[in-house]
Design goal:
12 helices, single chain, alpha+beta
């Protein structure tokens, strides 16, 4: 049985090697995607709080004046006073100092971090890439389990660097694998749940006996009635979800409600898991879904994603998941080095003297 597992582990490792490297490197970056963006583009995100924020409508007017003909579709808000706001126009995002109204910069098209994100999710190959990544996640989970099985009789966690050659790579492979087992397996398992979400998400709702909250339908059209501005919708959302910070608000239309995404302090996901829909004519709250009280199935889906990204406990778990992602790369490299050293040794032994 052990010889069979060794062969399967080796075959699975070869099959998944390139995907593990891609997912490991991109996953390590994605754990700190927001922080990397803020550090590498401080001119877009960093502001000095000074007095009260300018109303969103005023920020929108200034952005629209700077880019005539571009329609405003949404607003982004910083979760802390030192982060800028943004006005999202068709095809571009305008970053603004919400205290002075100054335009800090403009972005259009995907950034390199957006590309890293899509490479991790879909290998930049659409649905086909997502399918490959999902099955690579299954293979990674199996490799993790088979690796633990092969390590168990040895139970070695030290590395004998002085031995050099295959023995040092073998020790490194064993030590990194067992130390990172829990985190690596968590990454693989949660990634599989995300990759096969069309099957796994309904299963989570069935297990918990719950149903997802469906967004409200189109708003009843009121010809001639004026639409409320985003600031009024934001005030209604804050009243409905006290203690939650708004991070994003769309611009409503005659038949489209305002949708405000919000974050409670314990919700460390950048996009927020709390949402409020507001009637654009009356300011009435059409629906409010709190991350604290939403359906059990939804909470499990959110938790799975938070574990995978490292958002669950903030910076400490981001570091753990980032290191675990890089550990996966180390496993591929050390495994390949073990194999190549063994091949060299076997060839040397067969060579006539």
């Amino acid at each position: 049985m052990r010889r069979v597992i060794v062969k399967l582990h080796l075959l699975g490792g070869f099959t998944a090697a390139i995907f593990v490297i891609v997912l490991g490197v991109t996953g390590a970056l994605m754990a700190f995607e927001e922080e990397i963006d803020h550090v590498t583009h401080p001119h877009l995100f960093r502001v000095s709080p000074s007095g009260n924020s300018i109303p969103l409508e005023d920020l929108g007017r200034r952005a629209a004046a700077a880019f005539p003909g571009s329609r405003i579709v949404a607003y982004g808000l910083g979760v802390v006073p030192s982060l800028s706001s943004s006005v999202i126009l068709q095809g571009k995002s305008v970053y603004m100092n919400q205290y002075s109204g100054e335009i800090l910069g403009v972005r259009s098209g995907p950034t390199w971090l957006n590309q890293v994100h899509q490479l991790h999710l879909r290998l930049l190959a659409g649905d086909a890439g997502k399918t490959i990544v999902s099955w690579a996640g299954v293979l990674m989970a199996l490799l993790t389990c088979s690796g633990l099985y092969l390590w168990w009789p040895v139970k070695r966690v030290s590395i004998m660097w002085s031995a050099g050659g295959r023995r040092a790579w073998f020790d490194l492979h064993n030590a990194v694998g067992v130390v990172s087992f829990v985190f690596f397996f968590s990454l693989a398992l949660t990634g599989v749940v995300i990759g096969f979400e069309s099957r796994t998400v309904p299963l989570l709702y069935r297990i918990t006996g719950s149903e997802p909250l469906r967004p409200p339908g189109p708003v009843a059209l009121r010809p001639g009635a004026p639409l409320l501005g985003p600031d009024a919708a934001l005030a209604a959302a804050r009243a409905a979800m006290p203690g939650a910070a708004p991070v994003f608000i769309n611009v409503a239309g005659p038949r489209t409600a305002y949708r405000i995404a919000m974050r409670f302090p314990e919700d460390l996901t950048p996009g927020g898991r709390t949402r409020v829909f507001v009637d654009p004519y009356t300011g009435a709250v059409l629906q409010a879904e709190s991350s604290r009280t939403t359906a059990a199935g939804t909470r499990l889906v959110n938790l799975n994603r938070a574990i995978h990204t490292g958002d669950v406990f903030g910076v400490p778990t981001k570091i753990l998941m980032s290191v675990a992602s890089l550990a996966a790369v180390v496993q591929v490299v050390s495994g390949l080095m073990m194999w190549s050293r063994r091949r060299l040794s076997s060839s040397a032994a067969r060579t006539p003297r």
